[in-house]
Amino acid sequence: MATQRQPRPGTLAVWAGEKKDAWWGATQVPVAHSVAFGYANVDEWLAAARGRRPGHIYSRNTNPTVAAFENKVRQLEGAEAATSFASGMAAISNTLFTLLAPGDRLVSVKDSYGGTNRLFLDFLPRYQIEVRLCDTTDHRAIEAEVAKGCRVLYLETPTNPTLKVMDLARLARAAHKVGATVVADNTFATPLNQTPLALGVDLVLHSATKFLGGHADALGGVVCGPAKLVRAIHHHREITGAALDPMAAYLLLRGMKTLHLRISQQNESALQIARFLATQPQVNQVFYPGLPSHPQHDIARRQMRGFGGVLSFMLKGGFKAVRAFLPRLQYAHLAANLGAVETIAGPPATSSHVECTPAERKAMGIPEGLIRYSVGIEDAEDLIADLKQAFK
Ligand SMILES: *Cc1c(COP(=O)(O)O)cnc(C)c1O
What we know:
Order of helices and strands: HHHEHEHEHEHEHEEHHHEHEHEEHEH
Largest sheet: 7 strands, mixed
Shape: globular
Structural class: alpha/beta
Bound molecules: pyridoxal-5'-phosphate
Strand content: 5-15%
CATH architecture of the largest domain: 3-Layer(aba) Sandwich
Number of helices: 15
CATH superfamily of the largest domain: Type I PLP-dependent aspartate aminotransferase-like (Major domain)
CATH topology of the largest domain: Aspartate Aminotransferase, domain 2
CATH class of the largest domain: Alpha Beta
Number of strands: 12
Distance between the termini: 63 Å
Number of domains: 2
């Protein structure tokens, strides 16, 4: 027998989770548009319901197309188990409501995704959960808060939209000293660029809506980690009902087959564009972890294999300049999402942090002159030419 060799991520993105025997030998995972799954008799039905034989019962609980998607992400993240959700925010909220109970304490950072931040500030406190949000890159302050005791340390790196980077291995060590569970949002990096579980994080989650799907045509979320934790989160989802739709699972699966091609192109183009922007007189500052001038460049180099497809930059003229600049771009959707094959640009005020007031954005260090630029798979020279003509 051939020795078991761990396939590389590009191979996993194509083959993981795919089963040829599913339906008449279909080479593609079929879309199981079926709410329920029938059995010939009660004994077989019971055996499937009790997990004594493989099988699905009801699509809010499990579905074969959805399971294939979970399996693909699970293998890419190097996890024991995975469960999926109707959106990234469903993944985040179901995870937090599974792990936390009244009286618990959560430590996180000020720069989390806008929706996550609302969960921290508006929803968790209603359940008597204490939330402490630290300065995102102040590792000592985070360690000090964690040392006071907490149930969950919630991290997101690189952050949205200013691309701050946190040392996952260091913060996970601090959290484990007090028995906390470490959760990391890996949406920006993707498992191609960063595998948080390998760095000591307990649970890794994604908005699959972004780079995993990659085509901006399906919402989805996923959580990966040890079977015991994932089972509890999955059970929470079964009851709260935020299940991923099989058609969305199919679109995400199809998108993921080109994940490694897209990410390597986007890593390369984003670095080129960040370097170009850094030389432009109209630009105050460029935020990209791949630039040696980035304050956490060393941490990024240590824990990431590539620096990702999102960057942001600040225009000297503030929000007025942003408003004039954006419509001049020929090759960018002005839209709220990111991580697609097309380039997407927008100000945080209308995208990642639309849920926040101007004062909150200011407190979070998000300048009103900022543009988030999610690099697509177009030729980088065309994107640079497009930015050039928009600056003129
Ligand atoms: C978009 C996003 C989310 C939320 O995902 P949805 O699929 O829109 O619910 C969470 N985290 C990050 C980093 C995101 O970019």
